Amino acid sequence: MKILLSMLPAELEVPNGIKLIKIPTGSVLIGDGGFFGLFVLPRNGPRIKVNINHDFYMAETSVTSEQWLSLESKDPSKFTSEPSMPVETISRKMALSYIKKLNKKFPKINDISGVFRLPSEVEWEYSARAGDSSKKPGPDYNVGGMVTTKKGGGIHHGKLSDFSAKGGKTRPVMENSPNYWGLKGMLGGVAEHCIDPYIETNRGIPTNGDPRIGRGLIVAGDEMFVQRGGSWDQNPSDLTYFWKAGIGKNDCDGRDGFRVAWNPL
């Protein structure tokens, strides 16, 4: 018998350790208004109201080394393969391959059929905000990052070795602060892959949480895809709910990871 959507549990546990949290439906403002928003459209702007009316889950944390190794034979991380650390140096192509294996091995969670996937960028920001319409979390939110640096990585990253030489690195996923819905490390952990092609502004973005349709920005012949959340190499002052960057499908370094979403069927 198919489970009624209204009866879906608040949390689900995948046998390989991924904890899924049900995301409430509702509305929130996303994006960047910008200081000069009335005259110049900022990157990641304008602010728009999104309405999420479909049931989906987000993983409590980014995928860890332990969760990665449950389906893969090798951990590609540059820093450490400790079980509780986020797996990094993960390209979009690698993330999608892992998700394909997740779906094959776990077609049902607690007898509920469903499908794993990368979240859309609207779903990601909606989930990160957890109802917050401000620019970023308050000062009690531990985002990590490189507090000793004067300038964060932004869309153009510095050398990974420069940041790690100053003490920057990933850290255990459960050490990151949770948001109001219980999602940890949405900002300042690893830059997380989303399913959408990368477009700098919010023009034309689906307001119902669907991914964008069409091609992303082309850089040096490669199509760019969205990453959200920023990463450990950035100053916390640069980390906002609407931070995003573009990355090629095969590109990655020690700042790149992912978090899975899951849809009940």
Condensed summary:
With 265 residues, the protein is α+β, with helices and mostly antiparallel strands. Helices cover 13% and strands 21% of the residues.
SSE arrangement, N to C = EEEEEHHEEHHEEEEEE
Number of DSSP E strands = 13
As for the CATH topology, it is paralog of FGE (formylglycine-generating enzyme)
> Cα distance, first to last residue?
12 Å
Q: Give the helix level as a range of percent.
A: 10-25%
Low-confidence stretches: 147-156
Percentage of residues in strands? 15-25%
Number of domains: 1
Quote the average pLDDT.
87
Which architecture does the CATH hierarchy give at level 2? Answer: Alpha-Beta Complex
Strand order of the largest sheet: 1-2-5-13-7-6
CATH superfamily: paralog of FGE (formylglycine-generating enzyme)
Q: What is the radius of gyration?
A: 17 Å
Q: Shape from CA axes?
A: globular
What structural class do you assign from the helix and strand content?
Answer: alpha+beta
Largest sheet: 6 strands, antiparallel
Number of helices: 4
* CATH class designation: Alpha Beta
Can you describe this structure?
With 265 residues, this protein is of the alpha+beta class. It has a single domain, classed as paralog of FGE (formylglycine-generating enzyme), CATH 3.90.1580. The protein has helices at residues 65-69, 92-105, 121-129, 160-165, and strands at 11-13, 19-22, 26-30, 48-52, 57-59, 108-109, 112-117, 191-197, 218-219, 222-228, 244-248, 256-257, 261-264. A 6-stranded antiparallel sheet has the order 1-2-5-13-7-6. The radius of gyration is 17 Å and the shape is globular. The model is unreliable at 147-156 (pLDDT under 50).
